[in-house]
């Protein structure tokens, strides 16, 4: 079996962590049990470019249980858990190509290895496999029947491809599922981002000023968690509706140029580039801490920070301290990459349970319906979304009401008024 991981000797340790995560992933467990019986992915080759974590490992095992030939590579150079990668290779026989801290060349070599089996289905977190297939390996596109996409940044890229008529196969936007973005993005990113910051810095959030750039679902979650930890939260936005929502939620809203001199922590979650730029770094207070929880580190203009600095050193694991002219110090966490994965372990497994349930069922949907789908980005079908929510509630020991016949009739009628 072809693979490239750091050390197979880490496999047993990784296996225990995968088992621990699985205990709070009841929805994916139920899907895996059905997949083992029905084999809906039999003979399907899947290339998954995802964060190689314990939760992803349970998704890979589920896809394999469904009959798929799965290959896995990392969607971010710093997000791989090396023991998990080793466990999948040694104990599950799943080819993995991922090493934490890999350089840019190795990253793309690993994507090449992951698509070496000529995939039928792509499974992305950031659209790097789709982009690579369309730009570098066009000859493999004839094998691909569809794909799934996990994250906001990837969906933005794919919708751009679809609008320009260059997307060559249908893609299910897992990110648009309510059971993904309303929970994974808000509660998962919210908790794991603050977890990454605290692990990296050991700084007190309470009483500090936290600047959150972007008030989408991820920004909402981060702002909520920071406020819950006692921070004074400032939100920066370009959308007046989201800016207004942030104000109504109790946060201060202002442009980044005004927030830059007063923030203690800066967190970007916009999906755009150069959100924090040279002019912002230049006025930050001594000791400011900057990080990113969007998919790519381009949200921070790191080259500009380098040019402004006269000295750089790693002062703690995952913390690069830049000394600017005048002696002020700005610290960058996790090289500007996803801080929740670069300096912590990513989302809690109970949240990823729903996201990866969407991935598994999205892949099954593509296999069953690809001949009827156009070459564009589709939302997760509502019936799948609601079934995942139902299963999650059941897994948590919760139940909801059902409409009575009288209530159903009332909601369907126009004759009955007040």
UniProtKB/TrEMBL annotation:
GO terms for molecular function: adenosylhomocysteinase activity. Residues 185-346 form the S-adenosyl-L-homocysteine hydrolase NAD binding domain. Coiled coil: none annotated. Its EC number is 3.13.2.1. Binds 1 NAD(+) per subunit. It catalyses: S-adenosyl-L-homocysteine + H2O = L-homocysteine + adenosine. It is found in: Cytoplasm. Belongs to the adenosylhomocysteinase family. NAD(+) binds at residues 151-153, 185, 214-221, 237, 272, 293-295, 340, 347. One of its GO terms (biological process) is S-adenosylmethionine cycle. One of its GO terms (cellular component) is cytosol. Its main location: cytoplasm. Keywords: Cytoplasm, Hydrolase, NAD, One-carbon metabolism. Pathway: Amino-acid biosynthesis; L-homocysteine biosynthesis; L-homocysteine from S-adenosyl-L-homocysteine: step 1/1. This is Adenosylhomocysteinase. InterPro entries: Adenosylhomocyst_ase-like_sf, Adenosylhomocysteinase-like, Ado_hCys_hydrolase_NAD-bd, NAD(P)-bd_dom_sf, S-Ado-L-homoCys_hydrolase_CS. The lineage of its organism: Bacteria, Pseudomonadati, Nitrospirota, Nitrospiria, Nitrospirales. PROSITE patterns: ADOHCYASE_1, ADOHCYASE_2. The gene is ahcY.
């Amino acid at each position: 079996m072809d693979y490239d991981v750091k050390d197979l000797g880490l496999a047993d340790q990784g296996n225990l962590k995968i088992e621990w995560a699985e205990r709070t992933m009841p929805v994916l467990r139920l899907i895996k049990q059905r997949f083992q019986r029905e084999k809906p992915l039999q003979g399907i080759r899947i290339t998954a470019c995802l964060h190689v974590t314990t939760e992803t490992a349970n998704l890979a095992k589920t896809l394999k249980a469904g009959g798929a030939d799965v290959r896995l590579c990392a969607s971010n150079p710093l997000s791989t858990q090396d023991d998990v990668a080793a466990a999948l290779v040694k104990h599950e026989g799943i080819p993995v190509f991922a090493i934490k801290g890999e350089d840019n060349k190795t990253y793309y070599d690993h994507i090449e290895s992951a698509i070496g089996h000529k995939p039928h289905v792509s499974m992305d977190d950031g659209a790097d496999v789709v982009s690579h297939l369309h730009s570098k390996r066009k000859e493999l596109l004839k094998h691909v029947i569809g794909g799934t996409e996990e994250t906001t940044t990837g969906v933005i890229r794919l919708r751009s491809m679809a609008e320009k008529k260059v997307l060559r196969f249908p893609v299910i936007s897992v990110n648009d599922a309510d059971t993904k973005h309303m929970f994974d993005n808000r509660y998962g990113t919210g908790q794991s981002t603050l977890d990454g910051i605290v692990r990296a810095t050991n700084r007190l959030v309470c009483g500090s000023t936290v600047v959150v750039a972007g008030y989408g679902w991820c920004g909402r979650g981060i702002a909520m968690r920071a406020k819950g930890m006692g921070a004074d939260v400032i939100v920066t936005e370009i959308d007046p509706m989201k800016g207004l929502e942030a104000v109504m939620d109790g946060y201060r809203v202002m442009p980044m140029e005004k927030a830059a001199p007063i923030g203690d922590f800066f967190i970007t979650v916009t999906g755009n580039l150069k959100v924090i730029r040279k002019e912002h770094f230049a006025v930050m207070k001594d000791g400011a801490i900057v990080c990113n929880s969007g998919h790519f580190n381009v949200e921070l203009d790191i080259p500009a920070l380098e040019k402004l600095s006269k000295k750089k050193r790693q002062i703690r694991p995952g913390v690069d301290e830049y000394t600017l002219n005048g002696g002020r110090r700005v610290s960058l966490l996790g090289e500007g990459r996803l801080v929740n994965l670069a300096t912590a372990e990513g989302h809690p497994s109970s949240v990823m349970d729903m996201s990866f349930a969407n991935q598994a069922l999205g892949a099954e949907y593509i296999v069953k319906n690809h001949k009827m789908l156009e070459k564009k980005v589709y939302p997760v079908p509502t019936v799948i979304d609601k079934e995942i929510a139902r299963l999650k509630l059941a897994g948590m020991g919760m139940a909801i009401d059902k409409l009575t016949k009288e209530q159903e009739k009332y909601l369907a009628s126009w004759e009955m008024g007040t």
